[in-house]
């Protein structure tokens, strides 16, 4: 008989189920944000589970999460309907993220250590390598790692947590798959690192703001291209 505490396997199973639910929610959220799932279309449990290669349970839990975020609505006897995204919705999402990110950037410019700046330089080299390889998954991971390190450098962990959750609405694969975006991101990070070495807080904040302005323009252009607001 196992000496493991009773319930340990169940706890692990629950944790895995929650992780899977989060992964499904992230996938559906990105599909809504990029117009892959069209406004007013219905997300069917069985069809979505089969498409994503999961059971119905994590899809149901993911849709519950998205209902709480106002991204889908449950219509009786019909299922979950995708709530339309307006231009103002997109602008508000980027405004919120940019506002938090600029505050974190100002703190980082004041508090970051030289070794943390060196780490950012190394992470930007990882991003540049991923961009050169044209590997979207690697690009997305490298970009996330860079900004996680930068946002934490200011020591304001709770504010970093809020930004992390707000950033869920950014579709990372859309940017990572854009071959024109990668070199721009690497160059912007290089300028940011140089500004941090100079302890130029104004430049650090302005470069951070510019990254979100660029992201908003690219996502808006994509949604116009796919006819989200036609």
TrEMBL record:
Gene3D superfamilies: GntR ligand-binding domain-like, Winged helix-like DNA-binding domain superfamily/Winged helix DNA-binding domain. The keyword Transcription applies. SUPFAM superfamilies: GntR ligand-binding domain-like, Winged helix' DNA-binding domain. Keywords: DNA-binding, Transcription, Transcription regulation. PROSITE patterns: HTH_GNTR. InterPro entries: GntR_C, TF_FadR/GntR_C, Tscrpt_reg_HTH_GntR, WH-like_DNA-bd_sf, WH_DNA-bd_sf. One of its GO terms (molecular function) is DNA binding. The keyword DNA-binding applies. Transmembrane segments: none annotated. Residues 18-85 form the HTH gntR-type domain. Pfam families: FCD (PF07729), GntR (PF00392). This is GntR family transcriptional regulator. It comes from Mycolicibacterium vaccae ATCC 25954. The lineage of its organism: Bacteria, Bacillati, Actinomycetota, Actinomycetes, Mycobacteriales.
């Amino acid at each position: 008989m196992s000496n493991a505490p009773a319930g340990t396997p169940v706890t692990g199973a629950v944790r895995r189920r929650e992780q899977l639910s989060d992964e499904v929610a992230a996938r559906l959220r990105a599909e809504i944000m990029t117009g892959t799932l069209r406004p007013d279309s219905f997300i069917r449990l069985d069809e979505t589970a089969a498409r994503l290669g999961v059971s119905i349970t994590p899809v149901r839990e993911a849709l519950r999460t998205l209902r709480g975020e106002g991204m889908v609505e449950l219509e009786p006897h019909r299922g979950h309907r995708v709530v339309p995204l307006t231009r103002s919705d997109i602008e508000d999402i980027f405004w919120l993220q940019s506002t938090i990110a600029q505050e974190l950037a100002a703190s980082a410019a004041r508090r970051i250590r030289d070794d943390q700046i060196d780490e950012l330089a190394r992470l930007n080299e990882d991003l540049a390598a991923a961009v050169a390889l044209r590997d979207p998954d690697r690009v997305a991971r490298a970009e996330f790692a860079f900004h996680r390190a930068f946002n934490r450098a200011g020591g304001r962990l709770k504010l970093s947590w809020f930004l992390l959750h707000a950033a869920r609405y950014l579709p990372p694969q859309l940017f990572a798959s854009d071959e024109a975006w990668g070199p721009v991101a690497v160059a912007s990070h290089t300028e940011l690192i140089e500004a941090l070495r100079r302890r130029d807080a104004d430049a650090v904040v302005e470069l951070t703001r510019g990254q979100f302005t660029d992201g908003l323009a690219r996502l808006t252009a994509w949604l116009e291209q796919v006819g989200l607001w036609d």
